[in-house]
Amino acid sequence: MGRNGGRRRGFSTFRDGGLFLAAVFLGILIAAKLDQINSETHSGRFFVIDGDTLSKGEERFRLLGIDAPELSQTCRRGAETWPCGEEARRVLQRLVVAQNFSCSGSSRDRYGRLLVYCAAGGRDVSAEMVSAGFAVASGYFQFSGEQAAARRDARGIWAGEFEKPSEWRREHRAADIETPAAGFLTVIRHLLGWSHG
């Protein structure tokens, strides 16, 4: 009888733990959905400032989850130096002109830029930049698969030597010293596909 009671207690603890985890997960989903209500969505024509910054009219946008080389940053391929920051800008420009380009976000950085995820023709722009090798993944576990593939295939900046954009900014005392981190709820919304719509 004692053994059976122990089994029941173990099952009860397991069940209670499972219910607790389910409640936490449901709470996160509800909070992420509520966070979406505060989200701003912009579409139309954007101007590309650099590999991870856009503008539209007076509004400025910073792509979340990535850090691209700064506009004046250079990288090396063997003995050759090349303008990887300018090339990152060109790659983003090609994505921006796609049909159905839109960006959405719900918070701003200290410079007043809206922190966004963008989509171009149904493709995630941050993922495309990392996959092309013109940005490094900067947030949580996002885009790690795209970065690993770009590095393995020596795409973009991975074709040679480069300084991480954050380190380059620190050395050159660029005004944009930080790479904004996406909030946890923003990442959850993005992973669930709730960022655009």
Which key phrases capture this entry?
single chain, 197 residues, alpha+beta, seven-stranded mixed β-sheet, two-stranded antiparallel sheet, globular
Helix content: 40-55%
Low-confidence stretches: 24-37
Number of helices: 6
What share of the residues does DSSP label as strand, in percent?
15-25%
Structural class category: alpha+beta
Radius of gyration: 21 Å
**What is the straight-line distance between the termini?**
57 Å
* Average pLDDT: 81
Shape type? globular
- Output the helix-strand order: HEEEEEEEHEEEHEHHH
The counted number of beta strands is 11
Main sheet, how many strands, which sense, barrel? 7 strands, mixed
Q: How would you describe the overall organization of this protein?
A:
The protein has 6 helices and 11 strands. With 197 residues, the protein is α+β, with helices and mostly antiparallel strands. The longest helix has 36 residues, at 2-37. The chain has helices at residues 2-37, 84-96, 125-132, 144-152, 165-172, 184-191; strands spanning 40-43, 47-50, 53-56, 59-63, 66-67, 75-77, 80-82, 102-108, 114-120, 123-124, 136-137. Strands 1, 2, 3, 4, 8, 9 and 10 form a 7-stranded mixed beta sheet that branches.
